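User: For my dataset I need records formatted as: sequence, then structure tokens, nothing else. Please produce one.
Assistant:
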Amino acid sequence: MKATQTLRQKIEGHGDTLQEQLEALSRINAPALSPIELLKAIQSILGSIQASRGVALMCSSSSGVESVAVEDDFPEELISHLTRLLAQPVTGEFDIVLTPYRLRVYPLGVAPGRGQMLLALRTGTLPRTMWTAHISLSLSLLRMKVATWQPASSPTSDLDTEQLARLYRILKVLEPTHGPVELSRLVLERLRPFVPFDVAGLLLEEGHGATASLAAVRPICKPLEAAFVSRILQEHLALCSDRNTFSGLDIKVLPPVGFAETQTTGHPDSPFHGPLKSRLSLPLILPGGEIIGRLVVSSREADAYGSEQLIALSTLVNHLGSVLRNRHILLDLERQAKLDGMTELYNYRTFRKLLSSEISRATRHGKPLSLVLVDVDHFKQVNDTYGHLRGDDVLKGIARLLLAAKRNEDIVARYGGEEFVLILPETSVEGARRLAERMRVSIEQSTLLKERPVTASFGITTCDGRSRATCDQLVARADAALYRAKGQGRNRVELAR
């Protein structure tokens, strides 16, 4: 309890504004605390804004239902009611009203080796919009703790030998190198023997986008597809503190799976319209607490899912979290290897690979390819006069201006020091000159430094695609043009001769 007391002292030292409370929640070191300590740490924050008056953390197990942690002012009649609820799977949030009490109940998933867990809050008087963010972040922390709670026995001890074999068949094909679409396909195509379903879906976030993949025993009608995806998305966003968590959603519908094994009636090619009467939906949570997706199974049969299926799906979700964590690590390493750390543009090594590829493509299709070298004028004076930090800001600003002016297919990289380079596929010398001139004017008219204007010089070369040029030859010709631009007064665009 010492860790909890120390954490309480740190949290209670913060002010009462919503932003400060959210920051306090985000700093909780959830992996280092037990579920009881984590609950009390969260309650010390929620209680301080009067968003709740009473908290209960309930857990089902083979020996019955236990109250893992209950606040003193949580009435016994509410505990009894929650105990009865835990006799069956709890898969969605809901309200309970037992006059004069009002509760909000949140399922937390299945703790390995223990069972289903849920959180119940006696809601207070604040408007719901004022504490939704706190609840969302708190639930993320608790669900992460429940999913990674390590009991004395193995995390898969509740699965029998046959289920373990089915789980292994799913996991053995998953690799961190698989993208969201391929990863979803591999999971959903092998999921049905592990947890039966008529329609299943997997939502995965990556970068600024997300992919929702669906699988069904036979083709599903468009209204059912739209409703299924919409509900997955709503459930996912409800747990994210940032509701604008991604900018685009790509929907993939896999070919029907396992029709021959089903007892459905009708032709296998006829669309399935539902209704879906049973549903299990669990978030995908990385070990750090970040929610990056959701796995859902649904059945046309009522009461199709019980504790056995809930434990199986929770176990799979926990393992998927590990695979996705490794993928995020791999993506971060790849990103660091490809990008310049300061400007976030491609680095020199990546530029050389991309240029070689574009030269091959231009030669193969007989299309022109232009290369532009950019050098910031008098950059040493900027560093000497205003310091290297201001100089770094100038380079970052120029990188943003170049990215803003380029076309989608163009490539911008940091060549080194104060030099940048652009690869312009299928661009003639005149097209490259017009683009470079726009960029030159944009830099000259910017306010990257308030004390003085910032300018840049440009050197351009173009290969027509009929004769193959090497990377070194193109760079040398563009560099010669850049040298002339510097020698003729800077802040200008010159073409290779």
